[in-house]
Amino acid sequence: MIEATGQTRDLAALTRLAETSVELILQLQDPSGGYPASPTFSAYSGFCWFRDGAFIADGMSAAGAVESANGFFDWCGRILLDRESQVIEIVAAAAAGSPVADSRMLPTRFTLAGDDGDDDWWDFQLDGYGTWLWAVVQHSKRHGLDLARWSRAIELSVDYLASSWQRPCFDWWEENADRVHVSTLGCIAAGLGAVADAGILDAARRQKAHAVNASIGTTILEHGLTDAHLAKWLGSDRVDASLLAMVSPLGVFPATESVGSATIEAIDRELTVGGGVHRYLSDTFFGGGQWPLLSCMLGLAFADAGDRVRAFEQLDWAAATATERGELPEQVAQHLLDPSMKQEWVDRWGSVATPLLWSHAMYIRLAVELGVLEVIDA
Ligand code: BGC
């Protein structure tokens, strides 16, 4: 037992969980580079999401697993290059004032082999295309890597997002397709802002990326705030825990500035119970439990705000959700918002996705941030 931040905790156990998390992700990563969202969960098995994958790659990159992250970004790159003509068509249609239908936009998830899925899914989501851009730039900076390896895929992503960022689409939770979500906008801004300054774009695209990034910032400040903190969607007076990522790790609204700090406070007050973070108040998915990956994002936000005590508490809470085999689930049922809905989801999809690689990745990311996991060489 070691004294960390004034509280007695088993630091070695926290470190072990971070190490086994890295190993688990390395083992489960497909040879194609794609990360399965959850290897066994019926609805996710065989698929890799741009959103989950970008955060997983960022966690692995932060832990020093350079080749794993490279592999994922190569997977993204191949997917985008394979769909170059589709992106060109989407961009041209938007420029001509007749945007393509949602069903012609890029999906949120692909098979590990990089194909579109052939079952129905809530596929039109823009956030992942911003998040992968952000993550690949962080990765190249962290490890001194040349972004040229992914240059055409980066250009296609910039063109795609710049043409379509204003469109309503499904949110992080694959819901509310008729809204423009502040988290989605934040992911796009993070990606465009990161690549605009990364020295990889030609002048016209650099200018476009800067301009859209600035427009998103204005849009959020004018329509995406409620009570001085970030709101779930433009015009909403609700909060959503996905907004934590805008504070950290994406840093679009830093923890030390007013919007970021008010957002941390609001999510801590409204969606956090004993360290466990709910997605949003009316969540009924598997009864609306608490998500370790969101608890880790809250921990990252506390860390950025300089509050290591609260950040460590979040790491503790997430670690305590691990199963005996050291697997982190998508959510836990300690505090359900609507217990009556749990069974319906179990009947439909089986028990909660475990392990969820994104949960492991956010745990790794916070563990690295707090010095609990030493950066490895893999
Ligand atoms: C979540 C998504 C996630 C997907 C795969 C869904 O239930 O709402 O955010 O990308 O699972 O993990």
Description:
This protein is mainly α and 378 residues long. The chain contains 14 helices and 8 strands. Strand 1 and strand 2 form a beta hairpin. Helix 2 packs parallel to helix 5 (127-143) and helix 5 (127-143) packs parallel to helix 7. The longest helix has 21 residues, at 203-223. It binds beta-D-glucopyranose. Residues 37, 44, 49, 51-52, 172-174, 356, 358 line the site of beta-D-glucopyranose.
Give average pLDDT, whole number. 97
Element-by-element helix/strand order: EEHEHHHEHHHHEEHHEEHHHH
Q: Total strand count, please?
A: 8
The distinct bound ligands, ions and cofactors come out as: beta-D-glucopyranose
In helices, the fraction of residues equals: 40-55%
Euclidean distance between termini CA atoms: 29 Å
Low-confidence stretches: none
Instruction: Characterize the overall form.
Output: globular
Summarize this structure as a short list of keywords or feature phrases.
two-stranded antiparallel sheet, mainly alpha, two-stranded antiparallel ribbon, globular, 2 domains, Glycosyltransferase, binds beta-D-glucopyranose, 14 helices, about 375 residues
